[in-house]
Amino acid sequence: MDKKDLFWLAGLFEGEGSFVKPAPCEAKYPRLRITMTDFDIIQKVMSLFNVKYIHTRKDEKRRNRYVVSKGGKEAVEFMKQLRPLMGQRRQAQIDEAIADDVPKCNHGDNHPQAKLTAEKVSDIKQRLLNGESTNALAKEYSVDSGLI
Asked: In this structure, what are the phi and psi dihedrals at residue 67, rounded to the nearest 5 degrees?
């Protein structure tokens, strides 16, 4: 991207854009998002982001609002390029959006109500293949046989 486009995008994102931190289980997928009613501006952003898909919705005055977003590694690269051109508030948002590299999922072993670890599940599966009963395994692991 040439400097002129980068500065234009920085100005647009300073006023209108969002630097979205990822969902807890998607640590490597932060997003850049722009929402506005000016379709010509949206077209330029689409061109710079090399995206073709936009979301359209009506605002309170029944005008079309266009949403363009870019996620993943490419979004991180854009954020790194834009960061030096942004104000402190936006720099902090960028830092927060790209800070985490480790998912904080609430499923599997990380779920607060998890009864079995991945290692225990693997052991149970192997033992089931070897012919052990679900009731015996459930009793051993202190869980309901339906979980096995």
From this structure: -125, 125
* Per-residue pLDDT tens digits for 44-65: 999 999 998 777 877 777 788 8
3-99, CATH topology level: Endonuclease I-creI (3.10.28)
How many angstroms separate the first and last alpha carbons of the chain?
54
Q: Which residue has the higher pLDDT, 29 or 90?
A: 90
Q: Within the chain, which residue ranges are assigned CATH 3.10.28.10?
A: 3-99
Cα 92–chain centre separation: 18
Distance, CA of 45 to CA of 107 (rounded, Å): 36
Q: Write b or e for each residue in 40-76: b if 16 or more Cβ atoms lie within 10 A of its Cβ, otherwise e.
A: ebbebbbebbeeeebeeeeeeeeeebbebbbbeeebb
CA gap 98, 29 in Å, rounded? 9
Q: Could you report the per-residue pLDDT of 9-25, keeping only the tens digit for each?
A: 999 999 999 999 887 66
Whether pTM > 0.90 for this model: the answer is: no
* 33 touches 2 (CB < 8 A): no
Number of other residues whose CB lies within 10 A of the CB of residue 116: 17
22 or 4, higher pLDDT: 4
